[in-house]
Amino acid sequence: MSNAVMRLKKSRKNQRGAVALEYILIASLVAIALIGAFVYFRGTLKQSVTAITDTTASAVNQSIQGALTEKDDKGKAVTSVSLGGE
Q1: DSSP strands (E only) in the chain
Q2: Residue 78: CB partners within 8 Å, gap ≥ 6?
Q3: Distance in angstroms (rounded) separating the CA atoms of residues 50 and 27
Q4: Residue-wise over 49-58: b if at least 16 C-beta within 10 A, else e?
Q5: I need a labelling partner for 67 at 20 to 30 A (CA). Which of 14, 36, 48, 84 fits?
Q6: In this predicted model, what pLDDT tens digit does every residue of 44-81 receive, in sequence order?
Q7: Is 19 helix (H, G, I), strand (E, B) or coil?
Q8: In this structure, are residues 69 and 79 in contact, taking their beta carbons and an 8 Å threshold?
Q9: Residue 84: phi, psi to the nearest 5?
Q10: pTM exceeds cut of 0.85
């Protein structure tokens, strides 16, 4: 009877190693799929990031220009730049 118990314990240890190996295989397949997706959609991703960057930069520049522009008594825009505390 003790021989059967020892076999069962060894079997459980072997299953734990098999489960760990399965998780490693799954993780590596997911990583390969992600790398493949990035390579496949590289051009589209680059265009999207470029568009987002350009839009953000344009909005920031417009905001800065708006902050640096003042209006005179007649409502006409006058640009004043005093960045050095002068």
Answers
A1: 69-71, 77-79
A2: 69, 70, 71, 72
A3: 31
A4: eeeeeeeeee
A5: 48
A6: 989 999 999 999 999 998 888 877 776 666 666 665 55
A7: helix
A8: yes
A9: -95, 5
A10: no
